[in-house]
Amino acid sequence: MFSKFLSGINFIARCRKYGLGLWECPNFLFIVMGVVTIVTMVGTYFLSRQFSDEGITIMSVTVEAVLIVTIGSFVISGVEKVAEANILKTEFVSIISHQLCTPLSAIKWSMEVLETEREADCKFSEKQKMFLGNIKKSNEQMLKMVTDLLEVARIDQGRAIFEDKELDLSNLVEESVAGLMRSAKEKNVQISLRIEPGLSRVCVDERKIKVVLDNLIGNAVKYSKNGGKVEVGLKEENRRIVFSVQDWGVGIPKFQHSRVFEKFFRSRNDSRYRTDGVGIGLYLAKAILKHCGGEVWFDSEAEKGSTFYFRIPVPAAKNA
Ligand code: ADP
Predict the structure, then answer these.
(1) Ligand 1: which residue has its CA nearest to atom 2?
(2) Looking at ligand 1, which atom is closest to the CA of residue 260?
(3) 261-271: b or e for each residue (b if 16 or more CB lie within 10 Å)?
(4) How do residues 67-106 score in pLDDT, each as one tens digit?
(5) 298 in ligand 1 pocket by Cβ < 6 Å?
(6) Cα(146) to centroid(ligand 1), Å
(7) 226: CA distance to ligand 1 center in Å?
(8) What digits encode the pLDDT tens for the residues 220-276?
(9) How far apart are CA 180 and CA 200, in angstroms?
(10) How far, in Å, CA of 70 to CA of 32, rounded?
(11) Counting atoms of ligand 1 from 1, which one is nearest the CA of 266?
């Protein structure tokens, strides 16, 4: 607590961290504003005691107000600079992702053509087939990362379009599990599915909710240890569809729980440098579920595993 307070007032380190000059840095300017306010108030007090002349008191109060307004305008332009940098960062990510999307899709398309040819006349050696498999897998990973980054940029800029329609989540969960079977097999992770029959339909954007499922189930596989297991569940409770995915993998240390849904957050567990990812999957999941009127939460313990849950309300009209 005390160290947090100390780091809070260590404005030089903070301004350096943000890459801002002192007179652009809100932390420094707030401290200057505080000091100026105290000094001028004390000064005004002594002046008014020393001189009974009303004019001097009015003048000193005016000087005080001018100083505060001037520093205040510096603070505002400092905050604006930070906000602009944030907008630029989002735009930068969006432009780069757009530029990467086209060549990556071209590689994907070419790989698909090569695969059909391979099936037609089997002219690739085993080694070539292995290399082709590696290219395909890396390409899929990059394409997923770029698509997620684009979605994050759209959500941050308020440009995301949700095409909600009524659908049965069971099919999507099954589809998502099927799509992740290959990576699960590579790690020898068993995925089991428990879906309650006869679930109500929910009103969501199919493509976006698939992103949520792929990220949550994909994480459970990714952060499982070799030979582990993952349990995926879907049930209905109090007019809400509740999804859960449990793993017995690396888990998340308690002190990092509050940061898990932050953009670009990656926990400092062992697997941080061994698994691919940029820390946007859960941020995206939370934003998408918020749009559906749903919520996402989790339980996790380091080295014991994690369970991620989400729930989405069932549309009222369909319950009547
Ligand atoms: P990433 O691309 O890094 O997986 P996410 O936003 O999906 O990004 O997750 C953020 C971080 O939360 C991950 O880097 C990881 O440290 C932690 N995390 C998410 N899911 C799990 C899980 N099932 N088990 C352990 N850690 C997890």
Answers:
(1) 277
(2) 12
(3) bebeebbebee
(4) 888 888 888 887 888 788 888 888 888 888 888 888 999 9
(5) no
(6) 17
(7) 17
(8) 999 999 999 999 999 999 999 999 999 999 999 999 999 999 998 998 765 655 678
(9) 25
(10) 11
(11) 14
* Tokens at 256, concatenated: 């990092």
164 alpha carbon, distance to own chain's centre: 22
Any atom of ligand 1 within 6 Å of the Cβ of 277:
yes
**Considering only CA atoms, which residue is closest to atom 23 of ligand 1?**
220
**Residue type at 246 in one-letter notation:** Q
Residue with tokens 């003048």: 59
Closest ligand 1 atom to Cα of 251:
25
| Cα dihedral across residues 287, 183, 177, 219: positive or negative | negative
Q: What is the pTM assigned to this prediction?
A: 0.78
| CATH 3.30.565.10 describes domain 165-319 | yes
Q: Where are the domains of the chain?
A: 1-160, 165-319
Give the residue, out of 145, 146, 223, with the most ligand 1 atoms within 8 A of its beta carbon, to mutate for a pocket test: 223
What's residue 39's pLDDT? Answer: 84
Q: How distant is the alpha carbon of residue 240 from its chain centre? A: 24
